[in-house]
Amino acid sequence: MHLWPAFLRLDGMDGSMKAGVMRMRFAPYVEFAKKAFAREATYRMEVATEVGSLVLRVYLLRSLWTALYAQNAAPMNLPLHSMITYATVALLMSLILEVDGTRLIREKLREGSIATDLMKPISVPFYFFSDGIGQTGLHAVLVIPSLLFSLLLVHIDVPSPAVLGAFALSFALGYCVNFFINFLMNSIAFWTLETFAIQLIVRWVSDLLSGQIIPLMFFPGVLGRLVVALPFAAVYSTPLLIYVGVIPPSGWASAFAVQIAWLVSFAALSSLVWRAGARRVVIQGG
Amino acid sequence: MPIIRTRDLRKVFRSPRRVPGAFGALRTLLSREYEEKIAVDGVTMSLEAGELVGYIGPNGAGKSTTIKMLTGILVPTSGEIEVAGVVPHEARTENARNIGVVFGQRSQLYWDLPLVESFELLRAIYGIPQAQYRRNLDAFIELLQMDEFLRTPVRQLSLGQRMRGDFAAAMLHDPKIVYLDEPTIGLDVVAKEAIREFIARINAERGTTIILTTHDLADVERLCSRIVLIDHGHVVFDGDVERLKNAYGKFRTLVLAFDEPVAHPVLDGAELEEADGATARFRFDRNRERADLLIRQASERYRLSDVTLEEPDLESIIRRIYVEGYAQPEETPR
Fold first, then answer.
1. Per-residue model confidence as pLDDT tens digits over B86-95
2. Residues of B whose CB is below 8 A from A125
3. Does B7 reside within a domain?
4. Chain A residues with CB inside 8 Å of B112's CB?
5. B101 vs A25, A38, A119: nearest CB
6. Which of A2, A100, B163, B203 is buried deepest, with most CB atoms within 10 A?
7. Confidence category of residue A9, pLDDT binned at 50, 70, 90
8. B219 domain-assigned
9. pLDDT digit string (tens) for B144-180?
């Protein structure tokens, strides 16, 4: 894990390095997260709309899968109730995973306010991460009413505590992989300020290939093997398949290992990209 | 022991040469040709702790580039730089603890949050002890009269209120050095005066070293004892405001208003600065020419409706330097 400290140190750690020991104060980042939470909470209408539209989508997906299953009973041995559980949990997860703290990179580069952040004694990437965590916090609160309303419309399987624990761990890893995918996408703004088109394409591709909408085992043949090998699978598919039991306890360790491998590679890549991007800002003058 | 020291500081921006025409953008991307722009060209200066220096120059002179290098977000092309014992771009965060920055054109406050929450965030960022935070915040609320808008979201503040908030934000952690980049831009006269008063008090009471960049020379006249004048990346004057005024102050301006239009007014011993037919401005050296004799000469040649004699202010002195370049004038014997 040599690259991770480098990732933090390169931006914002130089002043805290004493005798080779990295001392990092967490107080600012806790505060960033709290402020992001408060900021998100000020947009009340948006919050209400979000819960409403999610519940609507839960209902639509239930109808869709029920209709599809009427044509083709239990494809890939995934019974209808598991499929509806899968689709509903995926939607609840999306409430949390759609948060993108790193879009601040793009916004701040466009406004030029990244210079102001670099004049503060903080690690700027870690600031983005904590801002995302704060937003996630608010969205996590939203999961509760969304879940309650959804339960009025659909039945969701609740697995054993061990499976729930494994799901939570896998989800946390997926969250971090998602952070770095977003980080890399938004970092394109260091080189070209117009990133909207690229982001939209990646968003569509990842929605489809992450297993958020369709379980990845439904993809046929080579395509099926390809999508499982892509990093997007680590975000949605792995935790969801653990939840519905398609990945049995004997497969958990290797599933986590693949997620961790993606996480470490993306963290390292993000470190390099940030270093190059920040250097570019510093040379060009913000 | 100076608190800020630069030697032969240079910054050259290098950007790919733009190729015009169809596929120009693509060729620009592939081109190996670069354009170089020298923003700062050998700036050497040193500031003692507690000084309040006006760093002025025309647009594009290299002021902001210098400030960015002093804050550590821009790496110099060559030269030396040291701020409070730290090389800023090598120890960005350590330097950040020593400095405070106010940009007139850009806020460091958090747009969606009430003003006071931005202050709390800064307390966490700098790890300001609670007692010090309370003391500073109370003092600033009083000095800058921030009571009534402390709980207002920043995006709803007027420019004057926002600037006051930005000033407090920059000073909460008791920085040794503060950079102010056009802090009074766009403010009305009352707000300007409040900000100037605040700057003067911070400098006098806390001994904070301040570099003030501005185009409003009234700021400089009111606040600074020393000016560093920069043009085309070079320091062209560094010294007392008084010395600059005295050096150029030997010139007076005689303003004539004519009864009937005069196409090319001439006065022996004075230099025509500008004329529009109805009025004319003549500049003369008060050590060589006598004002009363010039006025008599003028009244003999032209029918005058009004005569005014102007003392040079800092603004007109600086304007002359921008236009004509700085030539070290001989000191006027007193």
1. 999 888 889 9
2. none
3. no
4. 39, 42
5. A119
6. B163
7. very low
8. yes
9. 999 999 999 999 999 999 999 999 999 999 999 999 9
B76 touches chain A (CB under 8 A): no
Instruction: Tell whether A112 is within 8 A of chain B (Cβ).
Output: yes
- Mutating which of A104, A114, A120 best tests the B interface, going by the most B Cβ atoms within 10 A? A120
State pLDDT tens for residues B237-293: 899 888 887 777 678 889 999 988 888 888 898 989 888 888 999 988 888 888 889
* Contacts B75 to A, Cβ<8 Å: 282-283
Q: Which of B208, B242, B276 is the last residue of a domain?
A: B242
Domain map (residue ranges) of chain A: 26-284
Structural domain for B286, as ranges? 250-324
DSSP A55: H
* Cα–Cα separations (whole angstroms), residue A226 to A13, A205, A229, A236, B3: 39, 13, 5, 16, 60
Least CB–CB distance from A283: residue in B75, B103, B108 = B75
Residues B231 and B315 in one domain: no
Q: What's the pLDDT at A258?
A: 96
Supply the pLDDT for residue B311. 77
Residues of A in contact with B74 (CB under 8 A): 282-283, 285-286
Check B75 against A282: CB less than 8 A apart: yes
Please indicate, yes or no, whether residues B286 and B198 belong to a single structural domain of this protein: no
Q: How are strands ordered across the β-sheet holding B4-16?
A: B34-47, B4-16, B78-83
Instruction: Find tokens 């935790």 and name the residue.
Output: A239
Q: Do A116 and B101 touch (CB under 8 A)?
A: yes
Gap between the Cα atoms of A9 and B174, Å rounded: 25
CB-CB under 8 Å, B124 with A31: yes
Domain identity same for B165 and B68: yes
User: Has residue B270 been placed in a domain?
Assistant: yes
Shortest distance, CA A18 to any CA of chain B (angstroms): 12
Q: Which residues of A touch B65 (CB under 8 A)?
A: 285
Same domain, B259 and B236: no
CATH of the domain at B300: 3.30.70
Q: What is the mean pLDDT of residues A200-221?
A: 89
Of A21-35, A204-218, A240-254, B170-184, which gets the smallest average pLDDT? A21-35
**Residue B325 pLDDT exceeds 80:** no
In angstroms, the CA B257 to CA B298 distance is 11
Strands (E), chain B: 4-16, 34-47, 52-56, 78-83, 99-103, 177-181, 209-213, 226-231, 234-240, 251-258, 271-275, 279-285, 304-310
The one-letter amino acid code at A148 reads L
